[in-house]
Amino acid sequence: MESSDLLNSFDSQETQELEKCNSKNALDNEYAELREQVMANFQKPNLPNVNVPEKIIICLDLCYDDQNSLFRLGDGTTYTPINMLKRVLEFFIYSKYSINKRTEFALIAMQDDSTCFVQNFTNNLKDILNAIDYVNAEESKSETFDFQKVFQIIKREVEIPPYKQSECIIPPPYVVRMIVLYARSNCLPVIAQDDSYINFLKKQFYFYIDILLAHEEDCALYKCAEVYDALQDLDNGYSYVFEVSKNAAKIHDCIAKLLAHPLQRPLQKNTDYTFSSKF
């Protein structure tokens, strides 16, 4: 065998060994990532994986920063921020109701200087949609919004099923979920971490808080990052948190991801929305 053939043979062997090594490393990394996801889900409390009815509190922010900042659909149709939030809520409510007709909805309107309990829990779609359609947008003038006003309403109006370790495999009659749709980019949310009731809610296994932040596009002119960071204080480790600028397709995508039942979904960091095939 000539020297050139011998070198080519060595190169080929080295390439094959390198490919085997890379393949092994990839498998090891994939196994480690899968193990991490499994362990993270094991750390969740032992709750029944059942589609029990949900009582969903919609916390709708009525304030806007710029009335000329619009969502635009592919056909050129434009929507103001509040009208786009109303549109995606209608999609969410109809979809959630089709999954479980015992789902109930309530509406809390977050205004610039007040918070109102607009609609009590109902599974009558006409009532909740009329309530959402009834509220009007207003300009944001405040620098902060205190979420304690929201939690005071929840404390007064909402009963949360207790979690009992001895009965953890028995499904609760329902779970409560608060979905916050926040639309301000210059008004910082205030969530008091030393508030006893907020801390109480964060420890309730049958109470969940999800967040959808719809902020302005030019974050250099607004406090988008600060608002997003502040909203994280609502998360007790099991929340789903999404942020979107004036992107009509993405906000529909985000609201669709919130259709998953809190007792049946993984931690948000372990979600995978891709479609794959074994073939």
Secondary-structure arrangement, i.e. CATH architecture of the largest domain: 3-Layer(aba) Sandwich
Whole-angstrom Rg = 24 Å
Helix amount: 25-40%
Oligomer: single chain
State the CATH topology of the largest domain.
Rossmann fold
Number of strands: 12
End-to-end Cα distance, whole Å, is 42 Å
Compressed to H and E, one letter per element, the order equals HEEEEHEEHEEHEEHEHEH
- Bin the strand percentage: 15-25%
List the SSEs and their pairings.
Elements: H1 3-42, E1 54-61, E2 63-64, E3 71-72, E4 78-79, H2 81-99, E5 104-110, E6 115-122, H3 125-134, E7 138-139, E8 144-146, H4 148-157, E9 175-182, E10 188-190, H5 196-202, E11 207-214, H6 224-231, E12 241-244, H7 248-257
Parallel strand pairs: 1-5, 1-9, 2-7, 8-10, 9-11, 11-12
Antiparallel strand pairs: 3-4, 5-6
Model description:
Its main location: nucleus. This is BRISC and BRCA1-A complex member 1. One of its GO terms (biological process) is mitotic G2 DNA damage checkpoint signaling. This protein has helices at 3-42, 81-99, 125-134, 148-157, 196-202, 224-231, 248-257, and strands at 54-61, 63-64, 71-72, 78-79, 104-110, 115-122, 138-139, 144-146, 175-182, 188-190, 207-214, 241-244. By secondary structure, the chain is α/β, with parallel strands linked by helices. The chain folds into 2 domains: 1-44; 54-263, Rossmann fold (3-Layer(aba) Sandwich), CATH 3.40.50. The strands form 4 sheets. A 6-stranded mixed sheet has the order 6-5-1-9-11-12, with helices on both faces. It has a two-stranded parallel sheet with strand order 2-7. Strands 3-4 form a two-stranded antiparallel ribbon. Helix 2 runs antiparallel to helix 3 (125-134) and helix 2 (81-99) runs parallel beside helix 7 (248-257). The longest helix is centred in the N-terminal third of the chain and has 40 residues, at 3-42. The chain is globular, with a radius of gyration of 24 Å. The chain starts with a helix and ends in a 22-residue tail after the last helix. Mean pLDDT is 87; it is low at 37-42.
